[in-house]
Specification:
mainly alpha, 22 helices, 77% helix
Length: 428
């Protein structure tokens, strides 16, 4: 009975979530974009406003711009420190997202993820090299990028305590906090956070093949499996409580995904920090991002059709190389897309990049930090960026710029009806 109620609740919440997304998109439109038939996510519009305000302040009152940057520095560093964690929910509920996908379609999607990542990386990297040779722009030192502080033992033990106490409370009374989702929220959230911190403390050699986000995901899934078995609620219902997509009854996954809007806003500060690099290397950066984004979208549509993948599934994986926050905005423009599958494919693409990007760049003999940074961010967004910048800080500025611009251009492109119709025509 509990399982039946959970499944019904998930269906209702999914429809509610789709309605809320449409309403948010409508509210965020300006009169100009409405007249031009172009939709824009509200967070992305806010990012443009913040970046524009910082640029204007820097031209008129530089001290005020720096004071504003310093004021928001703690929030920006908080986001940077926990960034991979905000991508976890789609991976945690992956068993629910793919259970109705035929095995043959799953294999095709896996092929597109791996092959598409490699192809996009090559296109972005070689384009950057070609443009740089053509314009012959000399490199300058990048603005120093502050690294987030490592996780302390106190944090680890504190979250472990939250996990154990809340798990016992939920086991004794599954609705102690009013609903199953609210009661499960503390220990599922703590399992995510603890798993991420534990994964971040693993030796670098282990992290090369076992990214912290995998540890983070497995910890939540194993916790849901154990609690579902011991409480007799079942594994799938507990995952349903993890991500409800309703603000009135949030789960742990809803808390994490609520930060995605802030992640987009933080792009403005990353871009402003590297404004000199953007201006100096604009030709390489913008050309590479535009070419790689167009290639990624249209090649995915084409390969999906040639491989015989269902049109609804192909549409759902179109923004595979764009960060989760904006990928979800992009597929909201397409009817019938599976947002859970989109988020899962995006994160899986990032995982492939995080594990193999450095070795692949070396094999392709990409020595230029511009090419390495742009190729990484354009093909594997935030997770690939985090993996590369940990060992190559000189590539981080270009990663950050391409990371933001890739999502911005992809969203802008897909908001144009003519582009959407052309992609749908290719998908079939």
């Amino acid at each position: 009975m509990a399982t039946h109620e959970c499944l019904i609740s998930r269906e209702v919440s999914t429809k509610s979530d789709e309605t809320e997304s449409q309403n948010t998109s409508t509210v965020s439109q300006t009169k100009f974009f409405t007249a031009a038939a172009i939709q824009f996510p509200s967070a992305l519009f806010g990012m443009f406003c913040i970046f524009s305000a910082l640029v204007v302040l820097d031209c008129t009152l530089p001290s005020a711009a720096m004071a504003l940057m310093k004021f928001f520095e703690p929030a920006f560093m908080f986001i940077q420190r926990w960034l991979p964690l905000f991508y976890v929910p789609p991976l945690v509920i992956l068993p629910l997202s793919i259970k109705d996908i035929p095995a043959a379609s799953g294999i095709k999607i896996g092929f597109i993820i791996v092959g598409g990542w490699l192809a996009t990386l090559c296109v972005a990297g070689f384009t950057a090299l070609a443009i740089r040779k053509a314009v012959k722009t000399e490199m300058i030192d990048a603005e120093p990028m502050q690294k987030p502080s490592p996780f302390s033992s106190i944090e680890m033990w504190a979250w472990t305590g939250v996990f154990l106490i809340s798990l016992v409370v939920a086991f004794l009374n599954p609705t102690a906090l009013g609903t199953h989702a609210r009661t499960c929220l503390p220990f599922l959230l703590a399992s995510n956070v603890s798993g991420y911190m534990l994964g971040s403390r693993l030796p670098s050699s282990v992290r090369m093949v076992f990214h912290p986000i995998i540890c983070c995901t497995l910890s939540a899934d194993l916790t849901a499996l154990a609690f579902g078995y011991l409480s007799k609620l079942g594994f799938e219902p507990v995952l349903g409580y993890y991500l409800t997509n309703t603000s009135s009854n949030p789960g742990a996954g809803d808390i994490l995904t609520s930060f995605l809007g802030s992640v987009i806003l933080s792009f403005a500060f990353s871009m402003f920090k590297q404004r000199k690099l953007i201006k100096r290397h604009a030709a390489e950066i913008f050309t590479s991002v535009i070419v790689s984004t167009v290639f990624s979208l249209y090649s995915t549509a084409l390969v999906g059709r040639l491989a015989g993948l269902e049109p609804s599934l192909t549409v759902s994986i179109l923004p595979r190389c764009i960060t989760v926050a904006l990928a979800l905005s992009i597929i909201s423009f397409f009817e019938g897309a599976n947002s859970s599958l989109t988020a899962a494919v995006v994160v899986l693409t990032g995982l492939v990049g995080a594990n193999f990007v450095q070795a692949t760049l070396d094999k392709l003999r990409f020595r230029d930090p511009i090419a390495r940074g742009i190729a990484t961010a354009s093909s594997a967004h935030g997770l690939g960026t985090a993996a590369l910048s940990a060992k190559e800080p000189e590539a981080l500025p270009f990663c950050a710029i391409a990371y933001a611009l890739n999502g911005i251009f992809g969203t802008t492109l897909c908001s144009i009806p003519a582009v959407r119709h052309s992609l749908l025509a290719i998908v079939g």
